[in-house]
Amino acid sequence: MPGFTRFAVYYLPPPGPLADFGAQWLGWDVQAGCGVDQPDVPGIGTFTERPRKYGFHATLKPPFRLAEGRTQPALSDALAVLASRMAPASCDGLQADLLGRFLALRPTGDTSGLRRVAAALVEGLDAFRAAPDAEELARRRKARLTPAQDQLLQRWGYPYVMEEFRFHMTLTGPLQKEMVEPVRLALETHLPTLPVPFVLDEVALVGERPDGMLSEIARCRLTG
Asked: What is the model's pTM?
């Protein structure tokens, strides 16, 4: 497999029931870098098509191309150093909920620690990020960004970071209103017991392959 085209920093659940559920639900195991048979849920192949390539995750530093002169090994090393200086974060738990027209696992309780980790990664690894080109900026702006989001796009290459960051683990693409409850019921049938509290104590470097799918490169524990 040729080199990765983009990189990101994710939260990936540790090996176990939640990670297994996410891989099966979306049909892609981001940790193993392979497809997975999905459960027998009507329409699941369609309503999970959009998030499938990314795998089951929460984005902490959004996908970016490497800046000129930067390398994947140097990025991995920088993430390891940064993680060693960062304390773990936690919140009360996770729950399945709507985020716009998508269903996702979203945190409950105080999320300031999760925002702290994400902000530190966005800022701490920014030197590795190539600036978005005009085409990417135009594509992002089609979402009718607020002035604050547009400023974040220009500064950090993505509009939903820092104060606009919302921790979430995407479970579907956009759903029609009549699909929300059937999909939510199917989720409740397949979801394992969710962690209480939810603890974020490691982060993962992932890469986008030439085929468009993302897969894990390395994990780093937060030990600061």
From this structure: 0.95
